[in-house]
Amino acid sequence: MQTDTIVLGAGIVGISVALHLQKAGRSVLLVDKRGPGQETSYGNAGLIQREGVYPYGFPHDFGALIRYAMNNTIDAHYHWNAIPKLAPFLWTYWMHSRASQHEAIAHKYATLIEHCVSEHDTLAQEAGATNLLRRKGWMKVFRTAAQQDQRLAEAARWNRDFGLNYRALDVATLRSEEPHLDQSLIGGLHWTDPVTVVDPLGLSKAYVARFEELGGKLALGDAGTLVQDAAGWSVTLTDGTKAQAKDAVVALGPWADVVTTKLGYHLPLAVKRGYHMHYKAQGNAVLNHPVLDTERGYFLAPMLQGIRLTTGAEFADRDAPKTPVQLARAEPIARTLFPLGERVDAEPWLGRRPCTPDMMPIIGPAPKHKNLWFSIGHAHHGLTLAAVTGRMIAEMVTGQKVFVDPTPFSAARFG
């Protein structure tokens, strides 16, 4: 099978890359071991985070570090046996999270984030999927004045520096807009620019349908079979067919090392794992916005499947068995925040977020191989940045002027 470009990985990032390349006139084969959107892209919080100019850093305040060391929080959990392997990554991650460096990173990262909503709007319109997008933003809710004051001051600073829009919610306004939340909450912060997705898997499928409508092809295959040959790149599909193309794009998320390590790249990629569970709402209770319980570190999002409860980061080996202890810690607290009913899912879902220590994705050409491209390391913002990244890669592959400067996101920054 001959095609112009092979895209490895059918998560939302790989799907968006493939769709943009197909729109640009390239014939594209999208290859994955499973169906599109079945892994990390399925289990996110459904946020297109226009406010997310500061990627999620490693806390530097002493209190948080002490809490994490005790390993009994909702927002972070780790496997002791994984720490020796993760230690170099965590140290570099912590260093990049220092205030001055984090701020410098944010100004680079903002060049991607500022386009996240508009680029998804374009793809969703073309794919007939705008019904899956909600323009209500999302909320942080507060239990203590100290946390409220800190986050509102932060929001004011981000508004000044990046033009991000928000509302400070007093008790009366919060209760009016979310009447079924815990009445002891003292207020909230409403980020109004973000868009939420009520069915992330549905959005992935809609983008894939548009890709196929334009002539794109899907196939099952093992990315580990990718090799460079005289024609460019080839990969062996599950049915034994060999697919060949001039260009190949690695968009494998947490499994990128299947290709990158084999080709001699030692990128500092790690994985943050996370869990979710869906619930029915009790009685006539309604959750109108996605909500972060700021002090407790879990998130509730209204989805078509039910109310999705998501947890923070679990630091563990990528392929270790599920240990949904954060979900078990979060559920009883979440039930006091909002009247959750019975569980909808048979078991907790586990996903894996692909992370770099400087919190920025790797977008662009592979430094040592011609016509090989990387689109990996999007961490918590795979859904947020998928459409932006897809357009950037397509413009690079086809030799167009790239609408966002890709220099800060080059793999070459890691040497």
UniProtKB/TrEMBL annotation:
InterPro entries: FAD-dep_OxRdtase, FAD/NAD-bd_sf. The lineage of its organism: Bacteria, Pseudomonadati, Pseudomonadota, Alphaproteobacteria, Hyphomicrobiales. This is Amino acid dehydrogenase. GO terms for cellular component: cytoplasm. GO terms for molecular function: oxidoreductase activity. Residues 4-396 form the FAD dependent oxidoreductase domain. Keywords: Oxidoreductase.
